[in-house]
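I am still getting used to backbone structure tokens and would like to learn alongside you. To get us started, please write out a protein record for me. Once you have written the record down, we can walk along the chain together.
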Amino acid sequence: MADALSDTEIGRRVAESFNKQGLMATLGARLLLVAPGEVEIDLPIGPQVSQQHGFVHAGAVAAIADSACGYAALTRMPAGVGVLTAEFKINLLAPAAGDRLIARGKVVKAGRTLTLALAEVFAVRDGDEKLCAMLTATCMAVGGREGVSD
């Protein structure tokens, strides 16, 4: 396995990859925190991410949670490999409503090829957080494949 990356290199690696995601830009999501094994993503709530009842669409909730898990996993992977989600399961616990959402992803167990990660998504209203979703993901380190790298 390659030498470990510094916290600065990990942050730069994740930010550069995150900024390539058209969906995150379309949704208006922002990267808040990158640390070894952890990532936080912020999503302002507005009509562009709503469903018919005015809550944040489950697809937008799942997208930021999946990205939080994937990037948390990438922080634990060697340089030169990319990360792809192999599967995820989401539990929607409460309507996603408020001022913004925060998805907090963290690595549960990192392996050479597969990493299990968990994201909790909180709806924030007036500074108060309410857990609205949990997502577990199996993320795969992919090396030597054209077009897939960090």
Remarks:
- The beta strands are 30-35, 38-44, 82-92, 100-110, 114-125, 128-142.
- Residues 58-74 form the longest helix (17 residues).
